[in-house]
Amino acid sequence: MAIEPLELLRQTFPGIQSPEELAQLAQLARRATYPPGTVLCREGAYEKVLYLICEGEVVITKRLDAAEDSHLVLRRAGSGDYFGEMAIISDAPRSATVTTTTETTVLEIDQDIFRTILERNPNLAMQMVRQTFDRLRQNDRTTLEELRKALQTLEKLDRAKLDFIEVTAHELRTPLTIMHGYASMMLADPIVRENPALREMVEGIINGSQRLHEIVNNMLDVQRIDLAQIAVAAVPVSLPLVLRGAEMQFRDALKQRRLTLQMDLAQDEGDSSIYIEADPRLLSKAFSHILMNAIKYTPDGGAIRITLRYEDHPILERVAHVQIADTGIGIDPEHHTLIFEKFYRLGDVQLHSSGKTAFKAGGPGLGLAIARGVVLAHGGQIWVESEGHDEVNFKGSTFHVVLPVQAASRQKMALLRARYGD
Ligand code: ADP
C-alpha cells in the first residue's frame, strides 16, 4: 500500500510536529522509483543516502563469508520503513546490502539535502538526528535481546551435550571393562602367550580398550569441569616432582619419537623444597595433557623444554610459572583461545594419524579443556604463545601455566577473571 510523502515523513520523524517543517522536508526529499532487483545500498560502500519507502518491498542482506557468495537475509522492508539512516550523520560504510524485490518508490534524503536542512532549519535537523539515534539505540536493544536468547539456547544445547557425554561415557565403561577383563584373561592363557600372532592380536585389544577407557575418563573429566564439580584437594605439592612424573609417563614415547626433553626447574631462592598448595592428581593430569600435545604436535627429532620459575604476580602474589615449549607445528593466533574449548581441534580429522603419541595423532579435543579447567580451579592462568602454524620452519608453541604458591582466595580468583577473562 502506497504512503504519501508527507505522511511517510510524519511517521518516520514523529518528533517533527510543525506542518511547515514537514512540508519543507517533503519539498527537499527526492522521490524516485526503481525496478525490482535494484541495489539501493551496497554493503561496505560509502553511500550518502537515507531511503524512506513509499511503496514496494526491499530485502536487506548481509554477506556471511567474504570469499563465498553466501548471504544472510536480515529482514524484508516495505512501505513505511526506512533504511540507510547512518548515511546522513556519518561517513561509515554500509553495514548491509538493500535490494528492491518489487518496483519500489522511495523518498531519498542525501547528505547534501541534510546539510541544506541543517542550514535552513537546525531544529529540524536536530530532530532528525535525535530520531535516528533513537532508532539505532532501539536496534541495539533488539540485537542484544536476540543475542541473549541465542546465548540461552546455546547454554541449553551445551547442557544437553554434557548430559549426552555423561550417559555415553557411563554406557561405554561397562562393556569396555568386560572386554579388557576377558582380553587380559586370554593373554594369561598359555595357548595365546605361546602363539606370537595371537598374542599380538590380544595385546592390540588390550591397548585399544585402555585407550578407549582413557577417552571415556577424559569425557567424564571435562563434564565435571564444565559443571564446576571439580574438587581441588589442596596439599603441599612439589611441582618439580609433578613435572618429572609427567616426563616419566612419556619416556617411551619420547624415545620412540627421538624427541629431546629438557627440564629447567628453578628452585625458589635457594630453597630446594618449595611447595605450592595444589591438588597433585589434578596437576599431573593437566601437565600430562600439555606434554602429550607437545609430543604429538612436534615432528620426530624435535625438542621440548619445560621451564619452572617462581615470580611475583600483580594479583596472585607469589606464583609458579611453568612453560612447556616445543619445536612443533605451531598454532595460528586465531585459535589461541579456542583450543582450550572442549572438542575443539585443528587440522583435517581424516588426516590425523592414529596412536596416542604419534606425530599429529588425532585426539578428541579434550586435553586442553581439562588442563584449563584444572588450572582455573586452582585460581591460576593458562595460555599459549605461538607465531603460527608452520610445518616448514616448525617454530613451535609455548604453553604457559601460572599457579599461585598459596591457594588463591575466591576474591583473588574473581579479581583475576575480571582483569584477564577466563
Ligand atoms: P587433542 O585431543 O585434539 O590433542 P587438545 O584439547 O589437547 O585436543 O588440543 C586441541 C587442539 O590444539 C589440537 O587438536 C591441536 O590442533 C592444538 N594443539 C594443542 N597443543 C598443541 C601443540 N603443542 N602444538 C600445536 N598444536 C597444538
Question: Characteristics of this structure?
Answer:
single chain, 422 residues, alpha+beta, Jelly Rolls, Heat Shock Protein 90, five-stranded mixed beta sheet, four-stranded antiparallel beta sheet, 11 helices, 44% helix, elongated, binds adenosine-5'-diphosphate
Note down, in words, how this protein is organized.
The chain has 422 residues and is of the alpha+beta class. It folds into three domains: 5-120, Jelly Rolls (Sandwich); 159-225; 233-420, Histidine kinase-like ATPase, C-terminal domain (Heat Shock Protein 90, 2-Layer Sandwich), CATH 3.30.565. The chain is built from eleven helices and 15 strands. The protein has a five-stranded mixed β-sheet. α1 crosses α2. It is elongated. The relative contact order is 0.08. Residues 289, 293-294, 297, 326, 328-331, 339, 344-347, 363-369, 397 line the site of adenosine-5'-diphosphate.
Task: Characterize this entry briefly.
With 422 residues, the protein is of the alpha+beta class.
Helices and strands in order:
Layout: H1 5-12, H2 19-28, E1 30-34, E2 39-41, E3 49-55, E4 57-63, E5 71-78, E6 82-83, E7 97-100, E8 104-110, H3 111-120, H4 122-188, H5 190-193, H6 196-226, E9 235-237, H7 239-249, H8 251-256, E10 260-265, E11 276-278, H9 280-296, E12 303-313, E13 317-326, H10 367-377, E14 381-385, E15 398-404, H11 410-420
Parallel strand pairs: 10-12
Antiparallel strand pairs: 1-8, 2-7, 3-6, 3-8, 4-5, 4-7, 9-11, 12-13, 13-15, 14-15
Helix pairs in contact: 1-2, 3-4, 4-6, 6-10, 7-9, 9-10
Adenosine-5'-diphosphate binds at residues 289, 293-294, 297, 326, 328-331, 339, 344-347, 363-369, 397.
